Automatic annotation (TrEMBL):
Residue span(s) of domain RNA polymerase sigma-70 region: 31-99
Family membership noted in the UniProt record: Belongs to the sigma-70 factor family. ECF subfamily.
Annotated stretches, region: Disordered: 109-128
Annotated InterPro entries: RNA_pol_sigma-70-like, RNA_pol_sigma-70_dom, RNA_pol_sigma70_r2, RNA_pol_sigma_r2, RNA_pol_sigma_r3/r4-like, WH-like_DNA-bd_sf
Organism: Myxococcus fulvus
Database matches in Pfam families: Sigma70_r2 (PF04542)
Keywords: DNA-binding, Sigma factor, Transcription, Transcription regulation
Keyword Ribonucleoprotein: no
Protein name: RNA polymerase sigma-70 factor, ECF subfamily
Amino acid sequence: MTMSFPRRMVHVEPRQRPTQAAGALLDDELEKLRRDLTHAVARVCPPRLAERRDDLVQTAMMRVMELQRREPERSKLAPAYLYRVAYTALVDELRGVQRRKEVALEEVESLPESPVASGDPERSAGSSQIARAVRDCLKRLVQDRRLAVTLYLQGHTVPEAAELLGWDGKRTENLVYRGLSGLRACLSAKGFEP
């Protein structure tokens, strides 16, 4: 004996596939968002970071997309909000640039081990002693002075060093000259005169 169960009618909505028009609308919205963020980044980005603008726009896009994922009801974003997102992306980038530069520039060992002194062994030994003394005296300088003086000794001008370190030109000039003065005093105490 077979039992039959009554069938319940369940209405199932057919799956709606996104149409090409809906996909195009989404692409259009994303393109408009990218244009708005590009404009906001251009307003806040300094000229020295012009080559990083595309990265800043991408970072800002990711932040806005994350916000829209968390809060889907937020479909319209005010220009002031986009400006704020662009500004925070820029601040984070500047902080990252400063951190990367400090790590790279702290290495005093970037000076050559011994200056080139061809031919004469006595001159070569004297050059090695001077190089060791300079490295030792640089290590004794305060970090900011050490960084500024190291760049200066590597052949960078004061404005170039200021740009690399992200500091004011006057501050960098002051640090270079005070650092060089400290370096000369240290070398004099070690018996090396200019």
